[in-house]
Amino acid sequence: MVDLSERFGVSQTTIRADLDALASQDLLIRTHGGAIAHDTPRSDRSDLELSFEVRRHIREAQKARIGAAAAEMIGDGEAIVLDASTTALAMANHIKDYRELTVLTNGLLVAQTLIDSPGVSVVMPGGFVRPDSASIVGREGHDFIQRFNFQCAFFGAKGLTLSEGLTDVNHAEVAIKKRFLNRAKEVVALVDGTKWGQVGFASFASINQVDCVITDGDAPTDMITALRDINVHVIVT
């Protein structure tokens, strides 16, 4: 931010406002103290997790639509899983008025979003806090998860392909997502169009374990058709 201010001879307040405006038009990704371009090569980003605060503002409008569509899949009295993804957080904003709904999540901000919802009971596993993902992970929570059964589990992902299925970039997140998946009757992927064809570090669900994918209009039509051909329900928001 300081470098930009000095380079263009304007205040940091002006630079911050300009970056926010460009980010709102989905022209760049805001980061703490600056921004990166959407077309920055992955090698320059070291293919590491961006912080949760950065990721939650990427394609925010698309995630909101995906979250709203996902919320329509559940009803009062059910038990569901929400992972710690930014898209699951978007979904949490649409289920705050449900009644007798139980939500198991390892997402700290998902839990915080639902804390003032009297009809929603939030259950969290034990473990260690990962600041970058605002999540709780670790083997300490794995046995705890095994106690419960859930109608549906909703997952964000780093990538979705036919061969690798749903993938993520952190082994601890992958491990807990696998535990979630094993306790759910139905698995729903919440992935915007930029995640299709991408592959993360490790898979947590094969494509034949996925019942439904909720996405946006930027998802590739050939992959949508391929999923539907193998009886995976695809909802385009």
Count the domains.
Answer: 2
By secondary-structure content and strand pairing, the structural class works out as: alpha/beta
Rounded mean pLDDT is 87
Poorly predicted runs are 39-49
C-alpha-based Rg, rounded: 18 Å
* First and last CA, distance: 36 Å
Using DSSP, what is the number of strands? 14
Q: Helix segment count?
A: 9
CATH fold annotation of the largest domain: Rossmann fold
**Major beta sheet, strand line-up:** 5-4-3-8-11-13-14
Percentage of residues in helical conformation? 25-40%
Largest sheet: 7 strands, parallel
Shape: globular
What's the CATH class of the largest domain, please?
Alpha Beta
* Secondary-structure element order, N to C: HHEEHHEHEHEEEHEEEHEEEHE
Question: Architecture of the largest domain in CATH?
Answer: 3-Layer(aba) Sandwich
Beta content comes to 15-25%
Description:
The chain is α/β, with parallel strands linked by helices. It has two domains: 2-47, no CATH class; 60-236, Rossmann fold (3-Layer(aba) Sandwich). It is 31% helix and 25% strand. The chain is built from nine helices and 14 strands. The chain has helices at residues 2-8, 12-24, 52-55, 60-71, 86-92, 108-113, 142-145, 171-182, 221-229, and strands spanning 28-31, 34-37, 79-82, 101-105, 120-123, 128-130, 135-137, 150-155, 159-161, 165-168, 184-190, 202-205, 212-215, 233-236. The chain has a seven-stranded parallel sheet with strand order 5-4-3-8-11-13-14, sandwiched between helices. Strands 9-10-12 form a three-stranded antiparallel sheet, covered by helices on one side. The protein has a two-stranded antiparallel ribbon with strand order 1-2.
